[in-house]
Design brief:
The protein has 1 helix and 26 strands. By secondary structure, the protein is mainly β. The chain has 2 domains: 192 residues, Exo-inulinase, domain 1 (Jelly Rolls, Sandwich), CATH 2.60.120.560; 146 residues, Jelly Rolls, CATH 2.60.120.
Length: 361
């Protein structure tokens, strides 16, 4: 066991008079223009507003990460990144102080290509409930082992969030502090690493009956240049992409956003076309159950059948845009032979993905 106390965030000064304690920024790679090392609620801290701070030369696979966090109570987000491969690829657990005591006060999401995916990963194994007091220091402890993680907040003896399956591949990486939209203050970071080896491969659970796991993806475009309500003309370089056993295809795992700040300001979205081929010996009708984020156009054999919008707050002020199989379904009239099912999935933020299941008659 290796236990490391990161003093730059917990420096105590006993001499008097003494200069206020400072944050040793040289120990951290701070990627947040609004970040500040400052004294807050009587102790030295790092404030992250909208970015990440990575501990230089850190390597963490399994073990415990502990820190104190002070939140303001307004809509904001703060947490810990671990197994960081790059500033755009890591595991993330964070707290939502404005949702204290709610079922999604705590959140786990994998980060691929810089994209959060909380709309794709919600509920058991991904979100949890905790009381998140404002304007005082709250202790947070994250225990990571293999492909599982357990989060304890404010001295809890039982984990309030249990991540049953971390979605990124097991690998050692850096640790970091993370904040968004007003973020939080961080102090007293302590890391305890465990001797760890890659967990033995576990046979993948078979997907539920009818769940589509084999897809092909187009390149990523923008809706400003490629319209979602028509299949793109010309030759497309399709590449295979396999969904998780649940059916969720996290497109950000395979494609990176191509939007610029200027195009995003013009409400252009990222778009990818996902194709699945269905071969039938004879004509028949099937029920297609599907989920998506943020918007979708569904085509069968070149014909547009459905258009849907499920972005954050697109339906009412409390609508989150969580993607789950069940609420939406279509009936497909399949022809004998090869049938081409295509989802055009457009994304703004929160999770770029889809899921689909074909129910047998």
């Amino acid at each position: 066991m290796i236990r490391t106390l990161l003093l730059p965030l917990a420096l105590m000064v006993a001499q008097a008079p003494a200069a206020p304690p400072t944050f040793d920024a040289s120990r951290w790679n701070i990627i947040d223009p609004e970040a500040r090392a400052m004294t807050y609620l009587g102790r030295p801290s790092l404030f992250l507003d909208n970015g990440i701070a990575l501990l230089r030369d850190s390597s963490f696979a399994d073990g415990t990460i502990e820190f104190d966090m002070a939140m303001h109570g307004h809509p904001s987000f703060g947490g810990v990144a671990f197994r960081v491969a790059s500033k755009e690829d890591y595991e993330l657990v964070y707290l939502r102080p404005h949702l204290s005591r709610r079922p999604d006060a705590l959140q786990y999401t994998p980060i691929f290509n810089g994209a959060e995916a909380w709309q794709l990963y919600s509920g058991d194994g991904y979100t949890g409930t905790a009381e998140l007091p404002a304007n005082r220091w709250v202790h947070v402890r994250l225990v990571v082992a293999g492909q599982t993680a357990r989060l304890y907040v404010d001295g809890a003896t039982e984990p309030q969030l249990v991540v049953k399956e971390l979605r990124r591949p097991w690998a050692a990486g850096a640790i970091g502090l993370w904040g968004r939209l007003g973020g939080a203050h961080f102090s007293n970071v302590v890391v305890t690493t465990s001797a760890a080896t890659a967990p033995a491969p576990v046979a993948a659970a078979p997907p539920p009956a009818g769940v589509i796991v084999n897809w092909e993806l187009s390149p990523a475009w923008e809706t400003a240049t490629v319209k979602p309500d028509a299949l793109p003309a010309g030759s497309i370089a399709w590449t295979p992409a396999r969904a998780e056993a649940s059916g969720i295809l996290n497109i950000s795992q395979f494609r990176k956003s191509v939007r610029t700040a200027a195009s995003a300001a013009q409400r252009s979205r990222d778009i990818v076309f996902a194709r699945h081929t269905i071969t039938e010996p004879a004509p028949r009708r099937v029920r297609l159950v599907f989920a998506y984020s943020d918007a979708v156009h569904i085509f069968l054999n070149g014909k547009l059948l459905f258009e849907g919008e499920a972005a954050f707050r697109s339906r009412d002020p409390s609508f989150l845009g969580i993607a789950s199989l069940g609420p939406d379904a279509l009936y497909l009239d399949l022809a004998a032979g090869r049938n081409e099912l295509v989802f055009a999935v457009s994304e703004n933020f929160g999770g770029w993905g889809l899921a689909a299941r074909i129910d047998q008659p």
